[in-house]
Design goal:
Largest sheet: 8 strands, mixed
Number of strands: 26
Number of helices: 27
Strand order of the largest sheet: 3-4-2-1-5-6-7-8
Distance between the termini: 44 Å
Radius of gyration: 28 Å
Shape: globular
Number of domains: 4
Amino acid sequence: MGDTVEQMYIALISVHGLIRADNLELGRDADTGGQTLYVLELAQALSELPNVSQVDLVTRRIIDSHVDADYAEPIEVVNEKFRIVRIDAGPEEYIYKEQLWEHLDGFADNLADFFRKQDHIPDLIHSHYADAGLVGSHVANLLGIPLVHTGHSLGRVKRRRLLASGLTTEQIESLYNMTRRIEAEEITLATAERVITSTHQEIEEQYEIYDHYQPDQMRVIPPGTNIKQFKPPEGNELETELFGKLTHQLVEPNKPVILALSRPDKRKNIAVLIEAYGESERLQQLANLVIIAGNRDDIDDLEAGAQEVFHELLVAIDRYDLYGKVAMPKHHKREQVPLMYRIAAASGGVFVNPALTEPFGLTLIEAAASGVPIIATEDGGPRDIIGNCHNGILIDPLETSTITDALLKLLTDNALWNDYSSNGLEGVAKCYSWQAHAKRYIELVTPLAQRAELLQRQPLERTSHVYAEQAIFTDLDLNLIGDDVSLHKLINLIRENRKTTKFAIATGRRLDVALRMMKKHQIPEPDILITSSGTEIYYAPKLTPDTSWAQHIDYHWTPHKVRQLLDDYPGLEKQPKAEQSRFKLSYYIDPEQADIEEIKRLLHQEEQSVHVQLAFGQYLDILPIRASKGMALRYVADHWQIPLEHIFVAGGSGADEDMMRGNTLAAVVANRHNEELSQLIDTDRIYFADKPFAAGILESLEHYQFFHQAKTKKTS
């Protein structure tokens, strides 16, 4: 049995940023954001518990004329049980977290000395982010104190997003010390008794790819919400100035408000909400739609992705003639958001989050704390939130009918609306307030502090490289899809090797259509998703779009001129709008009437720098000259530093040909369209499988001894 700890002394470590008890400078820079608020509110909530004797929030001391003198105080007493402790480390001036790595050993030594000089050392250390994880690991090992860790953001995931923004691997290392950060995370995972995450999805998609990941180490405790800030209506919400500003464009402003609040990001899927609303006259009669999509002065001044989203939203509003029924304010302030939720609640409205993927769903908790019933995507965090609070309806974000049905149900059933409103208030207080978080936290860590429940670590096998060493790229149609039994075997094989092997899907389909097909066949989100025939690249775990790739292929691309040449061309018929995208023009082709070589000649004669490809004998895609599945594959391989010789590609139609040529290990799965790839039959490094679909992929992987080679590389 361990020592009995009746009242715990807990040390929270959050090294970077500017931390003080009052007037927190949120948003001052990238280091002073959500994490600083999280640790401050956690410390405050823990200090209010009777079985906690002392809480120290440990951060770095800063003496710098460019920041407030508060940050130079060695100790700031917040209340009788909570203090902020500032430790000297490195230069006195304020520096960003990327520059702190050389000074973390000194921070750890100084912190250990600080603890030793006290009458009592902490019963538990809880580190936040990789830098604090490294400090916490050193101090915990030195003083024999259990360590708990919260990552907030992980290096392997951050690297994907930075690559998507256009930075090279070399730039990422230079600017962010990414290899060092990932190694610090590995050390922390090797030391920590428990790791706290916000969702189960965070464990499965992020932590599981680390070498020192231990399933028994992980615990899910959602972050708390400030229920003093987010609260139910007080009675005057519909008389406020903000209500007037939100609804001044609306013909009947007193209808219930369907509220959506998110960034102007394609993954947030806001356009589908307008589509659902626009296709239902009954919804338009019942309620107004208010969309808060960031701040803007001029849409043309926004980055390209946001411009595209607003274009989609405005076109949808115009298509369904929703003027006077939809409001999309240009500006709002962060401090106005709680009142927006209360306005929606006071009006008898609903909050909707139709995102394609939602790892957590903080806005849903804020809405619930304000008494608004919620409608949310069935992916990720919302499933847990609605499961705990019983305050809303899960929808399929790819099917507008599910959104329409859910809205009509809530807007026409007053009893259900009232039940969901009160359930949300009760559920947030019980499961998602800081008080609830602190109570669950103490239940989790008390056995650790008493040394009664230490982690039994399982054997692990470290990889020889910080990043993945190889990758599998495959199409969806007639490759992955077609044999669900073999598909399940393939997915399990990929999952078993995910630490060394990236999984990528390259498809001609648009993002939303590809996601719908993947969901139908239970294909997990890949590490890399290439859509629209190679014109769009997304990275897990949040489908982060590669904006650098979009900029790269937007070269001599004039789609309106291509349309003028081909829309009336004999033997061509435009595919539906759902198959068109920003960098892809898609047609059905009748080979009896139209010759693809003649089409290429016409486009080149008219000085159109385009890539023309045929798939499955009937689909013709016109892309920018720099875009194709093969080009996208090579771009990803270069950015992720995976040699082409270590990449396996499975294809089944002509659209896959340029992925398969060259130095990749390629395979053609058996299907009726193999004649489009028959010219490759004598090409080196291309294997023609006897089996179709996923069975053909499994056959080909075995032919190449693909995973066996990976094991050989690890041990060599």
